[in-house]
């Protein structure tokens, strides 16, 4: 496996990383759905953004949640 990664062209390595990131996001979103079953998809996506980017960057990109810094975690 290590030899495969060493010999893979850069475009393929980036494709693997993209797939891994997408898988991580799906797992994180699944966890958020389990923790917050009554929230809308938009609220869950905002929580995902906070988890993925951190509170400060998510607030700068998407605006504050208006629920305090813990609310979107």
Task: For this entry, give a set of tags.
mainly alpha, elongated, 73 residues, 73% helix, single chain
Architecture overview:
With 73 residues, the chain is mainly alpha-helical. The chain has one domain. 73% of the residues lie in helices and 0% in strands. It has helices spanning 2-7, 10-35, 41-53, 55-62. α2 crosses α3. The longest helix has 26 residues, at 10-35. It is elongated and about 50 Å long. It starts with a helix and ends in an 11-residue tail after the last helix.
> What is the tally of helical segments?
4
H-E string = HHHH
DSSP strand tally: 0
Question: Mean pLDDT, rounded to whole units?
Answer: 91
Low-confidence stretches: none
Largest sheet: none
Rg, nearest Å: 16 Å
Give a quick rundown of the structure.
With 73 residues, the protein is mainly alpha-helical. It has one domain (2-62). The chain contains four helices and no strands.
Fold blueprint:
Blueprint (H helix, E strand, L loop, with lengths): L1 H6 L2 H26 L5 H13 L1 H8 L11
């Amino acid at each position: 496996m290590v030899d495969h990664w060493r010999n893979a062209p850069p475009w393929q390595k980036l494709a693997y990383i993209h797939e891994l990131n997408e898988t991580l996001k799906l797992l994180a979103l699944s966890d958020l759905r389990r923790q917050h079953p009554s929230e809308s998809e938009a609220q869950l996506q905002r929580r995902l953004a906070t988890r993925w980017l951190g509170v400060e960057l998510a607030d700068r990109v998407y605006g504050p949640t208006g629920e305090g810094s813990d609310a979107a975690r």
